[in-house]
DNA sequence: TGCAAAACGGAGGCCCCCCTCCACTAATCT
DNA sequence: AGATTAGTGGAGGGGGGCCTCCGTTTTGCA
């Protein structure tokens, strides 16, 4: 579990959280080049406050990214009790909710950074056992790597669809290609 | 086949084509909010010339988009002689080459525009018969629409992959979910 | 070859964003 | 309650993109 340092004082913590939430939604809407001033405005906070908490745009990316990765790890623990295929797809479902933001941020982030490596590890530790279990029980084809799977799902869900029904139909067809039948 | 009006004079035509090429690559690299001045610079042309040919950003989108759709239609004719599954995947291969640019533009374009409808029709006329043939011959599941297929492939290929091998592995797994086995 | 019309291209006004700096505010501690 | 100090927020300079306008250049035609 990776950590992000939050400020000490109550008002500062409030602003910190507001900024993080504003950044997440703003990045999701406008991509990684969303205006920082707009994010500060959304958070109801001065631009100076944003810069004190996150000196660079990159720091904001990292903070948002870390939060989402941590949530993914929690979900993985929660679904572990389900049967292998269901556990895997339930986790992917949750993965999808964050895929749009994540994808943009990951692309903007330098893949070589230590922080990125740590988060990647956290996410893999959370999700990879789900895939391995499904493969061991012969439910999923064995020549599929966890990395393949994540990229597939994240690509599939980052596009625009007519409605949610189409999105889930398309995703389930694609996942069907991974099953052993 | 949709058409884009090109200027009459030779120098103007040269500039028009240079702008179109610059726009395509710039949109592919930087998304739909690429700088117009950068595009003009890339094309070796004044900003005024860009605006004379394409009064709005949208006009540029449309011109780039139309060109790519026309190319897709040509490819569809070229692959018609192959067996059903091969014809379909060959066409999709080509579809992939343009998917990145296309996806960004499509999202920026107003879906209600007449131009969009015409292009959509052109593309459907080109590709849909390939899918229908594969379905009639029992090679592809019948509850898949052409729209489903395009969105799936365009999503799958818009993401970042480690290398081309991973991309094609992932795409082929997903397509495998569409086959009748 | 000479000329009219078409096309060029970039300066300039406007706006928004980035980021720094510092006078002010309020949370916490005693 | 008062002192201390972490925290605030926005003004402002610099930069770059958007778009218009118009003096200059190029082309095609006679």
UniProtKB/TrEMBL annotation, chains A, B:
Coiled-coil annotated spans: none
Entries under Pfam families matching the protein: TetR_C_43 (PF21597), TetR_N (PF00440)
Q: What is the lineage of its organism?
A: Bacteria, Bacillati, Actinomycetota, Actinomycetes, Micromonosporales
Q: Which residues bind DNA?
A: 35-54
Descriptive protein name: TetR family transcriptional regulator
> What are the HTH tetR-type domain coordinates in residue numbering?
13-72
Q: Which SUPFAM superfamilies match?
A: Homeodomain-like, Tetracyclin repressor-like, C-terminal domain
Q: Which UniProt keywords apply?
A: DNA-binding, Transcription, Transcription regulation
